[in-house]
Design a protein that fits this description.
The protein contains 19 helices and 21 strands. By secondary structure, it is α/β, with parallel strands linked by helices. It folds into 2 domains: 230 residues, Nucleotidyltransferase, domain 5 (2-Layer Sandwich), CATH 3.30.420.40; 222 residues, Nucleotidyltransferase, domain 5, CATH 3.30.420. The strands form 6 sheets. Strands 17-18-16-15-19-20-21 form a 7-stranded mixed beta sheet, with helices on both faces. A 6-stranded mixed beta sheet has the order 3-2-1-6-14-13. Strands 4-5 form a two-stranded antiparallel ribbon. It is globular.
């Protein structure tokens, strides 16, 4: 019997999970859960990194009291980072990727490096919050911060540093930055130097699945734990989630579905093409040097934000109750593009959806059910768009779609996805990211041989629901209408 401790931090919450490998199956026990909300201070949106680290320490204590563990792994969202000075101290709280500081930065960068050249060099989808754009903003407008910095460290690596004292950049999280050469898997210093970003702040890259270091003596004394190893798991939560896709196929489609929807496949080599740039496909790193060829789609954030708004109005509905309201509403009346830039900003989600529908000459949804149905159907149709593009760009034929993560609980949405994409949908484990985190720790220790064995164990450890397509002709007509508003 082997026990490991996984911390999975998403854009709205975090959790500590003890995983046990016993008789070829993995069981998970959540021992600690905590919120993770951006904090707006004088117009800047920050992450409260000190609070998050305190929650990780609380989780470690709870894990010790629950019987102990053999290693630790941490995964988080991508692109964001902290700066530390030459004494190793943090320079301010990390800024949230949804902060407005980089809204217009890509256009400024393209004056130095064209969009095509940047994509051809990195293979990364152009998103205004990518690490490259954040660092360019600092270099141009807050150069004093970068001058004070000895190292810049991605969020999971920063939390690992607080635990171990070791400063490294894990491969998968580094690959989200738009600063990595996808072929050599090393920093593209030419890009950084061209943009005036110092390269001496870069940490060395550590491969996924390697031991980063042990808990420091200070941490061990404070928390009364042994100096167990901290593993450089797939630091980017999607990289961890993809490890846990319960498939035996080499060619498969996955959606890591939560606040964001990461829609893609796994490749052995980068795929950089004009078609990929136009379709917003990105080449991010995966376990074993694989490429996560995917597109970032604004996911269940839309329904999460709408629900927060409804709660403020006194309608405290669960997600299941919201889905029930959506089922009561008439289908295919209006659609939105989930990636419309205004939807990515917090607040007023229902108003933004109504304004989008009005601007595009559609029916304007009014009730909770109508707005929820609009969101769910639009996201399912966006998946179809991504699914078709993925097949065209890769030249592959895919049998089905594997959904993992929080979206697997949204049974209505899983069914809509199957119907919209006209293929079977296989809904895997809701804690897919934690499972992938755990699997990498167990591969690092040798308790699991390789990723094929890991995925087989995860498949045998999970209840997988299958959704078959329904009402294909209705969804075909809806998709034709949907294309007119993209």
């Amino acid at each position: 019997m082997k026990k490991v401790l996984a911390f999975d931090l998403g854009a709205s919450s975090g959790r500590g999970i003890i995983a046990t490998l016993d008789n070829g199956k993995i069981t998970l026990e959540e021992i600690h859960r905590f919120p993770n909300n951006g904090v707006n201070v004088r117009g800047t949106l920050y992450w409260d990194i000190v609070f998050l680290f305190d929650q990780i320490k609380q989780g470690i204590v709870k894990a010790r009291l629950a019987g102990g563990f053999d290693s630790i792994g941490i995964d988080t969202w991508g692109v964001d980072f902290g700066l530390v000075d030459e004494c190793g101290d943090l320079i301010g709280n990390p800024v949230h990727y949804r902060d407005a500081r980089t809204d217009n930065i890509p256009d400024e960068v393209f004056e130095e490096i064209s969009k095509d050249e940047l994509y051809n060099k990195t293979g990364i989808q152009i998103l205004n919050f990518n690490t490259l754009f954040q660092l360019y903003y600092l270099a141009k407008y807050k150069s004093d911060m970068l001058k004070r910095a000895d190292k810049f460290i991605f969020i999971p690596d920063l939390l690992n540093y607080f635990l171990t004292g070791v400063k490294k950049s894990e491969y998968t999280i580094a690959s989200t930055s738009q600063m990595l050469n996808p072929y050599t898997r090393s920093w593209d210093k030419d890009i950084l130097e061209k943009l005036g970003i110092p390269t001496d702040v870069l940490c060395d890259i550590i491969e996924t699945g390697k031991v980063l270091g042990n808990l420091t003596p200070d941490i061990c004394e404070e928390l009364d734990v042994d100096p167990v190893p901290v593993i450089a798991v797939g630091g980017h939560d999607t990289a961890s989630a993809v490890v846990s896709v319960p498939t035996t196929e080499d060619d498969f489609v996955y959606v890591s579905c939560g606040t964001w929807s990461l829609f893609g496949t796994e490749l052995s080599e980068p795929l950089i093409s004009e078609e990929g740039l136009k379709a917003s496909y990105t080449n991010e790193g995966g376990y074993g040097g694989k490429i996560r060829y995917l597109t970032n789609i604004m996911g269940l954030w839309l329904i999460q934000e709408a629900r927060r708004e409804w709660q403020k109005q006194g309608h405290d509905l669960s997600f299941g109750e919201i889905a029930d309201e959506a089922l009561k509403a008439e289908g295919f009346k209006c659609f939105v593009d989930p990636d419309y830039p205004e939807f990515g900003k917090p607040g007023n989600m229902t108003k933004k959806i109504q304004e989008f529908c009005k601007k595009t000459g559609q029916y304007v949804p009014q009730t909770i059910g109508e707005i929820a149905r609009c969101i769910y159907e639009s996201l399912a149709l966006k998946y179809r768009h991504a699914f078709l593009n993925l097949g065209k760009i890769t030249g592959k034929t895919f049998a089905g779609i594997h959904i993992v993560g929080g979206g697997t609980n949204a049974t209505l949405f899983c069914q809509m996805t199957a119907s919209s994409c006209n293929t079977n949908v296989y809904a895997g484990h809701v804690e897919a990211t934690a499972l992938g985190n755990v699997a990498v720790q167990l591969m690092a220790s040798g308790d699991i041989k390789d990723i094929k064995e890991a995925r087989a164990i995860i498949r045998d450890s999970s209840d997988i629901a299958t959704y078959a397509p329904e009402n294909a002709s209705d969804w075909d007509k809806a998709y034709e209408k949907y294309l007119t508003i993209l």
